[in-house]
Amino acid sequence: MRxxxxxxxxxxxxxxxxxxxxxxxxLPVTGYEGDTIASALHALGIKKLSESSHWKRPRxxxxxxxxxxxxxxxxxxxxxxxxxxxxxxxxxxxxxQTNKGEIHDK
Amino acid sequence: MINKDLVIIGGGPAGLCAAKMxxxxxxxxxxxxxxxxxxxxxxxxxxxxFGSEKQFAKTRGIDIANKLVEDVRKHPDLIEIWDDAxxxxxxxxxxxxxxxxxxxxxxxxxxxxxxxxxSEKVLAFENNDLxxxxxxxxxxxxxxxxxxxxxxxxxxxGSGNIGLIVSYQLMQAGVRVLSIIEASPKIGxxxxxxxxxxxxxxxIVTSCTIKKAIGTEAVEKIVTVKLDEKWNEVPGSEKEYxxxxxxxxxxxxxxxxxQSMIGSEMKYISELGGLVPxxxxxxxxxxxxxFSCGDASGIEEASSAIVEGYITGLLASKKLGNVHPRYDExxxxxxxxxxxxxNGPFGDKILNGLKxxxx
Lengths: 106, 359
Ligand SMILES: Cc1cc2nc3c(=O)[nH]c(=O)nc-3n(C[C@H](O)[C@H](O)[C@H](O)COP(=O)(O)OP(=O)(O)OC[C@H]3O[C@@H](n4cnc5c(N)ncnc54)[C@H](O)[C@@H]3O)c2cc1C
Ligand code: FES
Prior knowledge:
Chain A is mainly β.
């Protein structure tokens, strides 16, 4: 949880939030209620979310508001989920996406 | 198919204010925003706003958002709100398709106000696609909405107001801003913001740009380089920074996918941030009953987005037959406010752009 803001002069992040359990590439990890998948991963120091489909270059998020699709991952078997705007839910299975994503992946 | 007379796409300051005026005029409307929280850019702004008292200057952006949302929620009978709903299509017969709860919904409208705001520009340099290189808006969303730091050592690219303000917000969140670099010889933003930053000990390096990023899974280092008067790289002036994040704040461009999709006439106007719809005197685009306001029709500020929103709300309701009881008085008042705002420090540039944008 090294990237969580603990003290802030204006905003209040101190309130205890519910812990949400999920898996990242099969690894059990946690985030907080109210997180998006991307913010929870980022807080854990996980920045690479996908690979570019052709050159397999690492990709993280860029806009964080659903504009650019740079944060696409496979979530519960569904590819091309924009994880920067998708709320984290208990038990989610989140994976790095390394291809364009196939409909029948689901 | 759902029928709605007036649909407002985007619930930032522009859209919220348009909805408020429509309701006051007795015009019902549907306000759609893809975010879970209404307020647009404002929900990430922890700083006190600049501008005029009339548009909430000296109030924090988040508090302005709350105030505007409260105004809209006062009219539950006239303003229907769909949040977490993305408009994905806008067609010539004024049918709007919306993605909500994984369902496609079709809405037949009579008039539409497009107030979708802006998206961030990107910058070309070697390895600019490495994870850890984020737009300024993303950095703000991550910090101020989710309470997560983008990294611990960061370099800011761009010294406009956004670059300066976000640098300040980064420091508030406990992130070390190593340096702000700016390609032009002059700092882009207001002097007050720049001085505040300098007092915190952050260096602002002008005539300097980012040459490349280095890293395997994410950014680990960047190389900057100085630029001469002709914007050519100065050999030997490279400097390396060890970073775990880079923030790109090189400006915004109007989000005009919907205006383009419906085929309204567009123009490239650099003063307004890029491709914008041509705007007719009553704030319509070249297509009748398709209105556009706020950053979505030219990058300005929240203060002008608010006033443009009010004006567009008044005009659109009038067009649909609902005239605000104080229509003339309010139109005068808001037009005066807009003129005053555009007399500010960046006003000339905006006025120049608007001259080109008018039909
Ligand atoms: C760091 C920073 C500091 C700033 N400081 C100031 C300041 O001090 N003073 C000032 O006056 N201004 C300031 N601004 C500028 C101000 O925030 C913007 O000009 C203003 O928010 C524009 O309002 P808008 O309503 O046009 O767009 P936005 O606020 O961008 O709102 C657009 C809305 O549309 C929604 N949307 C977009 N596309 C769709 C779609 N397809 N379907 C559904 N919804 C959609 C978005 O979710 C968003 O809520 C600042 C901006 C930034 C980034
Ligand atoms: S980061 Fe741009 S869509 Fe998610």
